[in-house]
Amino acid sequence: MRKRANIKFVTFHFTNKMKKAELTTQQIVLLIILLVSFIVILFLLFRLNLGKESDSEICHNSVVIKGTAAIPADATPLKCSRTYVCITKDNTCEGMTKPEIKKVKTEEEIYEVLASEMSDCWWMFGEGKVDYVGKDLTPHFYCSICSQILFDDSLDGIEGIEGKISQEEFYSFLENKPTKEGETTYLYYLTGFSDMNSFQGYLNEEDAVLSEFELNKQYFILTGINSVVGTWKWAGIGLIAGGLIAAPFTGGASFGISALIMGGVGTAGGVGGYFVGTAVKGEGIDNDFLKPVIVEANSETLDKFNCRDILNTA
Fold this sequence. Notes:
Elements: H1 2-47, H2 50-66, E1 83-88, E2 100-103, H3 107-124, E3 141-151, E4 164-166, H4 167-175, H5 186-191, H6 196-205, E5 212-214, E6 218-226, E7 239-240, E8 243-244, E9 279-281, E10 288-296, H7 299-304
Parallel strand pairs: 1-2, 1-3
Antiparallel strand pairs: 3-6, 4-5, 6-10, 7-8, 9-10
């Protein structure tokens, strides 16, 4: 009888150990499921391209912090970096090393990419509401290159694109295209004009020409701010194809040609490349701001902007 009892005890002890082993196996399976789920979530996050959004927010936040009155402007560096974007039809991009590829199928999709990059640039640098450079002994113009864009030659296979991209068609597209937030149109957000007729009429008055972007060339999306000295203010600046013109205040009011034109840059033809842009008066601050422009990415053009500094990293 005693011997049989011992056998029962051994059997019970062995069974109990097996149950513990089964629990351990379940835990391993659960860990594997959690690990796979985590990898899938990370993959989806990267597919959603949240990294770029995070970079934009980091830049925007550093601009706001630098513009805080209690903090000296030179005490906090901007944390803004240039993005490299290739707009392509066939998903290839020979002219850039490791760019952010934007694959498009239509002319309108090209315009959407440009509008998004320009509006992100204006938002990142405070929309004309933040003085992020402080005061200088003499006024200086500071530039920021938000994006470097390559129009891949594969775009030539898209209907409506024949070696070049029309700026006039681009701005006409912006007239009826709402921004991501839906509060206004891209045309108004990026130029201060509510309709294309007003914008085109203004350019005609200043003999400005809406030119074209050439395929297989690279362009900067650039914005800027002028520093102020005491109560001295600029009358305002603006850019046309190859030079400077007067430009509208935010809200549609206009101001005259500046008495001091940005670093001595001259009239039409004084700056290489073709671009159109507008300048606006700061909201609640004395600075004037250049809204985002698209300008050919060559050193000659950028040098003639006479930027005191490029306020973001390459």
